[in-house]
Amino acid sequence: MFHSFAERGLFSFRAFCIACFAAAFLLMSGCAGSFPEGTSETAEPEWAVYLTELADAGPASIITDLALQNTAPVAGKEVLIAFTLVMQSPRVDGLSSSSEADRLNEIDETISEPLRQKHGAVYAGRLNHAGKLTLYFYVPRNSGAKRAIEAAMAAYPDYRFHIEANEEPGWETYLGFLYPKPDKLRSIRNGMVVDRLIEAGDTLERKRPVEHWAYFPDTDSLNRFIAAMIEKGFRVEGIETADVGDKPFSVRFSRSDYVDHESIDGNTLELWRYATELGGKYDGWETHVMIGDDDKNRENVRKGTLRQRG
């Protein structure tokens, strides 16, 4: 509405999410395999991998399709199938080891492909934790998915596993467990843009202008946010009002900052929290790819812009 990707020549994170996540996934030790195919409910899957801590037993790696959040729960997929496999050689922290990664990924594909193609399954995600790998699928009632998994696992007699099937029409496991919490989701999306900057040849060593957007329900919250941003060294680039939506007042503001993952995570988390406290919505950031010394040789700076929208 205020900053169209098409009009501004921006890269939408949906357009490059698979490549970015694949790169992050391959670099992250303890995470096995490649990303699953999309489902009929997600023509453009947005697979995310992230690390978290579970209260019961240490670190966990979760892979999930962010795009499912737009359609969940899906009618007719009321049963949650949780297939849990006991790893043979996990790392000491309980995550999967590189030596077992190929085998685990093979088992994943052996199970997930028939379930999607023949049993109407939606692959919601997987959990790598405490020496076990759990795959989560939502399937129709009486789909035969459990029997299909048991048949597929006949090819892997050296692995122990169990299968749980429970009614879950509200998709609580996906929405409340697999789908990342807001701060983790923002970090994931930030990482996607940072990865693209690096892929384009940006070393991230220098500060550069970074623009941000935020939306608010009224002028009071908008003005309070603007005042706080000015105190923090931001410059207001524009204020707009729309006639639609519950947050019609927007501000675009900027500051020169570093955009490595740690720096951008810290900055945007602070902006998100304060906008949320005021009843508003922080909507992401934008910056240019920078290659070479921008001050001495403008020709070495790629005229590209990357945007993280959230």
Description of the molecule:
The chain has helices at 5-8, 13-27, 98-119, 145-152, 172-178, 182-199, 219-231, 261-277; strands at residues 47-54, 58-65, 79-86, 122-129, 132-139, 161-167, 208-216, 235-241, 249-257, 281-288, 305-309. With 310 residues, it is an alpha+beta fold. Strands 1-2-4-5-3-6 form a 6-stranded antiparallel β-sheet, with helices on both faces. Strands 8-9-7-10-11 form a 5-stranded antiparallel β-sheet, covered by helices on one side. β8 and β9 (249-257) form a beta hairpin. It is elongated. The relative contact order is 0.14.
N to C succession of SSEs:
HHEEEHEEHEHHEHEEHEE
Profile the largest sheet. 6 strands, antiparallel
Tally the beta strands. Answer: 11
Uncertain runs: 1-34, 295-305
Rg, Å, rounded: 22 Å
Category by helix and strand content: alpha+beta
Please state the average pLDDT score.
82
> Which percent range describes the beta-strand content?
25-35%
Spatial strand sequence of the major β-sheet: 1-2-4-5-3-6
Helix content: 25-40%
Termini distance? Answer: 14 Å
Topology at a glance:
Elements: H1 5-8, H2 13-27, E1 47-54, E2 58-65, E3 79-86, H3 98-119, E4 122-129, E5 132-139, H4 145-152, E6 161-167, H5 172-178, H6 182-199, E7 208-216, H7 219-231, E8 235-241, E9 249-257, H8 261-277, E10 281-288, E11 305-309
Antiparallel strand pairs: 1-2, 2-4, 3-5, 3-6, 4-5, 7-9, 7-10, 8-9, 10-11
